[in-house]
Design brief:
By secondary structure, the protein is α+β, with helices and mostly antiparallel strands. The protein folds into 5 domains: 156 residues, Beta-Lactamase; 109 residues, PAS domain (Beta-Lactamase), CATH 3.30.450; 116 residues, Beta-Lactamase; 168 residues, Heat Shock Protein 90, CATH 3.30.565.10; 128 residues, Response regulator (Rossmann fold), CATH 3.40.50. Helix content is 40%, strand content 23%. It has a 5-stranded antiparallel sheet. Strands 7-6-10-9-8 form a 5-stranded antiparallel sheet, with helices on both faces. It is flat. The C terminus is likely disordered.
Length: 826
């Protein structure tokens, strides 16, 4: 007997049941009636309503037990089924229920049918099922009746949820009003009916049981000195202004005077007559007391402002004089006596592009009766540079509401703005990484069938050298395309690459081919690469990026043309020289020098050129990550670098890479001629890309395998379930619609824990490999893979004993995508 699987979405379904208020709830008559009706319609002795993750049935008919353990539950098996109606005519023939005590013993179940209870959002939260002691089927009318009852069960659930949400919403509203100290009211002028929220009673200091809502009660509480003002505001709203805001005082029954703020709105019917008045009321007593305290503490503020280092200012609106504290001098670099006490000392230093906006904004706040004003803008320092500042002021008014003074402060946000800009750039890089992953997946899927086809065509070309040369050219360019995809991922996501013996001459030749075709013709490219350069170990993709970044920087430094020179030499650093540098170590190095005749780097920028996001280029013409990437890659290879530059004469970057004269640098291997063959094994190939399925099938069939294919995980599971004993191995893609690779692997492992599986993906990242491994796949094949890589891995997996491929021995790569370009990772 197979234990009921845990549905992958069970946690989400339990959250849904919580929203319905159905977690651990007892039976209810409405659901029991529907269960009984289901049994009658289908002529079955037993009917149940079962919910996901619950120990008890929500409803039952003809079944003695209040619930069944999960491991013997029928409905638990069906919770993950995609079908709406499931009918099992004879349970005894279903391998999932062999040995189930509910089948072998009381109540001797032989027939099962269920309707999945699915929410409008698509969550399967349970089943409505019927069972019988005899193998049988359901008529079309019975099936339709069961569907209808399933909908009725869901209707009951939705009714519960709607009622629960209404109660919770009302409670949240009352709680929010209590926290905010904000009440609301509505007056039906036609029926003379007034409604107050609980918070209105609290603000007015009265109780509902003693004071039913009545306009007369409210006006009796208004302070006598403010009563005429309140009536005027109501009249303004009634005369068509629709909505008015005003403040006034009230006297509570206990004698306490409180300040309140009101917002009132009038509604009119089709004939223009007032029909409804509504509004809000808020207690602002504490705010008013704070304002009074602020006025009383004005002199103390001046004394404290002189003692603090932050920028504090005081603007006398009547006299139009502006006072600054000493923090202004410190922040912006002025000396005492250099700032005149006038508003012009402020407006004259605002950036010209923002000056009119700032002046208009602050005067609008003063004239419009605002309490505060705030803005961010650029303010000129003494040295002529501009600081990004945040400015905020409080407007003090007289009894008539006229602004008489503003006090406030400025903060220098320049450093914060730079950090925010760097953060935004980092977010853009994350987005680029996500985009690069999608592009890499698609490109690798395109390259995979091409690379396998080349090998097949190579075998068919015989001894035709011309055709063979063409195929070699195509193959080499496909590998270059795969390398380029890996380079994009390495740059955007920081993937670690493959470390192999390298000869610098090969990298420079590749670089010359690229920049020779793309750089302007007025830039002359020269190189001097001795033939006896020592080899070194490194990632060719990352080092190619280093060369390209330096070459592009040199090009940008020579907008009117010049000479780009690449030279290299073998150097040995002794212990004495190494002691003078924090990064250098004694030993053999290959020294690469990239020299341009451009504009040079200013001394003040030279110390920062390797900082992430630092750039001297115009906005939009540089990201500030090129040289930072160069520095990171060189350091990761155990090397170091230096720069020599003179403004107007040019720049030379020196790259020192640790060398090993004993290394042997392999040339690219020719296309394999003899490939490993199969022995008639049946292989299931699963991939949503037709071209990959087709060429993989052709390749495997040519080399002695039998092949069946599936376009997605669901189709693959169905094929494997039918031909479990025949299929020797499953090759599945990780990214597919309907059911992805991880889910497919999980289901196949449940069907047959000993199934041999190879996972494949166009994104050979650690996450993808780890996801495949966690699902149960012990082997991974990065796309695009060659026929040689495919046949070699198939033979290795098929020839290995099943018990040998234990998790501790599984051949996962230490670094993701270590040979993604050639289709092998070991």
């Amino acid at each position: 007997m197979a234990a009921a699987p845990t549905p992958p979405q069970e946690a989400a379904c339990l959250c849904v049941l919580h929203d319905y208020g159905l977690v651990d709830t007892p039976p209810e008559a409405a659901f029991d009636d529907l269960a009984s009706l289901a049994a009658q319609i289908c002529g079955a002795p037993i009917s149940l309503v079962s919910l996901i993750g619950q120990d008890r049935f929500k409803a039952r008919h003809g079944f003695a037990s209040a619930g069944t353990p999960r491991h013997v539950s029928f409905c638990a098996h069906m919770a993950d089924e995609a079908v709406e109606l499931l009918v099992v005519p004879d349970i005894a023939l279903d391998p999932r229920f062999v040995g189930n005590p509910l089948v072998t013993g009381e109540p001797d179940i032989r027939f099962y049918a269920s309707i999945t209870l699915r929410t409008p959002e698509g969550h399967a939260v349970g089943t409505l099922c019927i069972v019988d002691r005899h193998a049988r089927s359901l008529s079309p009318d019975q099936q339709e009746g069961l569907r209808m009852l399933g909908r009725q069960v869901m209707a009951q659930l939705e009714l519960r949820r709607s009622l629960r949400e209404t109660i919770l919403s009302q409670a949240r509203l009352e709680n929010s009003q209590r926290i905010a100290g904000l009440g609301d009211w509505e007056y039906d002028l036609v029926n003379h009916r007034l409604l107050w929220s609980e918070e209105v009673y609290r603000i007015l200091g009265i109780e509902r049981r003693h004071f039913p809502p009545d306009p007369a009660i409210f006006y009796r509480l208004v302070h006598p000195d403010d009563l005429a003002f309140v009536h005027r505001q109501k009249k303004i709203a009634a005369e068509g202004s629709r909505c008015v805001d005003f403040e006034h005082r009230i006297i509570r029954p206990d004698g306490e005077v409180r300040y309140i703020h009101q917002a009132t709105e009038m509604a009119f019917d089709g004939q223009g007559r007032m029909s409804r008045e509504s509004g809000i009321i808020q207690d602002i007593t504490e705010r008013k007391r704070s304002e009074d305290a602020l006025r009383r503490s004005e002199e103390r503020f001046k004394f404290v402002a002189r003692a603090v280092s932050d920028v504090v200012w005081d603007w006398n609106l009547s006299a139009d004089t502006l006072w600054w504290n000493d923090g202004f001098l410190t922040t912006f670099g002025f000396a005492a006596g250099e700032i005149e006490p006038s508003v012009a000392s402020w407006t004259g230093r605002i950036h010209p592009d923002e000056r009119s906006r700032m002046v208009e904004g602050i005067h609008h706040a003063i004239d419009a009766g605002a309490e505060t004003w705030s803005a961010e803008y650029r303010f000129q320092r003494k040295d002529g540079s501009y600081a990004f500042v945040q400015d905020r002021g409080y407007i003090l008014r007289d009894a008539a509401g006229k602004g008489i003074r503003m006090v406030g402060g400025m903060r220098d946000l320049t450093a914060q703005k730079k950090m925010e800009a760097q953060h935004l750039r980092a977010q853009r890089m994350d987005s680029i990484g996500t985009l690069a992953g999608g592009i890499a997946h698609d490109l690798n899927n395109m390259l995979a069938p091409i690379m396998m086809s080349i090998e097949l065509l190579k075998l068919e070309s015989g001894n035709d050298p011309r055709r063979g040369k063409i195929l070699d050219t195509i193959y080499i360019n496909c590998r270059r395309g795969a390398d380029l995809v890996r380079q994009v991922l390495s740059f955007a996501r920081g993937f670690d690459g493959q470390r192999i013996p390298i000869h610098l001459r090969q990298l420079v030749d590749d670089l010359r081919g690229i920049i020779g075709e793309t750089f302007p013709r007025n830039i002359r490219i020269m190189d001097d690469m001795p033939g006896d350069l020592w080899p070194f170990t490194g990632d060719p993709t990352q080092l190619h990026q280093v060369l390209l970044n330096l070459a592009v920087n040199a090009r940008d430094a020579m907008p009117h043309g010049g000479t780009l020179t690449l030279t290299a030499a073998n150097v040995t650093i002794d212990a004495q020289y190494a002691g003078t540098s924090q990064e250098a170590k004694a030993g053999p190095y290959v020294l690469l020098q990239v020299t341009d005749t451009g504009c040079g780097i200013p001394p003040e920028a030279r110390e920062r050129i390797f900082e992430p996001f630092f750039t001297t280029k115009e906005l939009g013409k540089g990201t500030g990550i090129g040289l930072a990437t160069v520095h990171t890659v060189v350091k990761s290879h155990g090397g170091f670098l230096s720069v020599d530059s003179e403004v107007g004469l040019g720049t030379t970057f020196k790259i020192f890479l640790p060398a090993d004269p004993s290394l042997c640098v392999d040339r690219p291997a020719p296309l394999p001629v003899e490939l490993l063959r199969g022995r008639g094994e049946l292989v299931l190939v699963v991939d949503d890309e037709f071209s990959i399925r087709d060429i993989t099938q052709q390749t495997l069939e040519i080399f002695g395998y039998r092949v069946i294919t599936a376009g997605d995980g669901a189709e693959a599971v169905a094929l494997y379930a039918k031909r479990t004993s025949e299929i020797s191995l499953v090759l599945t893609d990780m990214m597919m619609p309907v059911m992805d690779g991880a889910a497919t692997i999980g289901v196949l492992m449940r069907i047959n824990p000993a199934v041999r599986i190879i996972a494949a993906s166009g994104i050979a990242s650690g996450d993808t490999i780890g996801k495949a491994g966690n699902a149960g796949a012990k082997h991974f094949l990065p796309k695009p893979y060659t026929a040689n890589a495919l046949l070699k891995l198939l033979r290795e997996v098929l020839d290995a004993p099943v018990s040998a491929a234990t998790p501790s021995q599984r051949p996962w790569p230490e670094e993701p995508a270590s040979k993604a370009s050639v289709g092998e990772w070991r």
